[in-house]
Amino acid sequence: MARQSLRENLLDAGFRTIWNSGYAAAGVRDIVAAADARPGSFTNHFASKEEFAGEVLDRYFAYVGTLVEKALAQDGTPPISRLRRYVDVITSKLEAHDWARGCMIGNLSLETAVHSEPLRLQLVDIFERWRQPFAACIAEGQAAGDISKTFEAEDLADFLLSSWQGAMLRMKVERSPAPLERFKKIIFSTVFAKEPTP
C-alpha cells in the first residue's frame, strides 16, 4: 500500500483539529503536531493557514455531499420523507459528538466570514452548490403536489439550510438535541407538510 503523503497527513490532521477546535484555536503548530510532522513542514505545502482552511473546507463539503446524495437519492421515497431523512442522518452524526461539534461549514461561516474574504467567497459558493440538490428534491415534491408552490424551490432550500444551521448553533450552545427536534417538528408540520388533497 502506498504511503500517504505528508500533505495528506496535514490535511487529515487539520480536518480533525479545525472541526474539533475551530479555525482560530487551530494553530499551525497544533496541526503539524497532530500530523506528527516536523516544524516548518506546513509552509512547504501551504502558502497560508487561510489557504489550508480552504482545502479542509472543500474536503468537508465533499463529505457532506455524500450524505446529501445518499439521503436525497430518488429511491421511491417521497421528497418530504427524503428531506426528513437528511436531517435525521445529520442528527445522528451530531449525537455521536454529544451535541457539541456542529457543522464545519456553519462554524467557519461564523468564524471567518468577517476576517477572510477568500474563505467568505468560498462559503458563498458552497452554500450555492449545497442548495441545488435540496431545491431539486423540493421541486419534485411541488410537481407531485406534496409541497406548496407558494415559494420557489430554491428559496425553500435556502430557508431549510439556513434554519437548520441556526438550530445546530442553538444545539451547540445548549448541548442538547432540543433545538433540532423543535426545528423538525415545526418545518415538517408547516413548510414541508404534505398538501391536503382537494
Succession of helices and strands: HHHHHHHHH
- The strand count comes to 0
Specify the biggest β-sheet.
Answer: none
The overall pLDDT average reads 93
> What would you report as the Rg, rounded to the nearest angstrom?
19 Å
What's the structural domain tally?
2
Task: Write down the CATH class of the largest domain.
Answer: Mainly Alpha
The name of the CATH architecture of the largest domain is Orthogonal Bundle
CATH topology term of the largest domain: Tetracycline Repressor, domain 2
Count up the helices.
Answer: 9
Q: N-to-C terminal Cα separation, in Å?
A: 62 Å
CATH superfamily of the largest domain: Tetracycline Repressor, domain 2
**Gross morphology:** elongated
Percentage beta strand = under 5%
Unreliable parts: none
Structural class: mainly alpha
Report the helical percentage.
Answer: 55-70%
Structure explained in plain terms:
Residues 4-64 form the HTH tetR-type domain. Residues 27-46 bind DNA. Keywords: DNA-binding, Transcription, Transcription regulation. InterPro entries: Homeodomain-like_sf, HTH_TetR, Tet_transcr_reg_TetR-rel_C_sf, TetR_C. This is Regulatory protein TetR. The chain has 198 residues and is mainly α. It folds into two domains: 1-46, Orthogonal Bundle (Arc Repressor Mutant, subunit A), CATH 1.10.10; 49-187, Orthogonal Bundle (Tetracycline Repressor, domain 2). The protein is 68% helix and 0% strand. The radius of gyration is 19 Å and the shape is elongated.
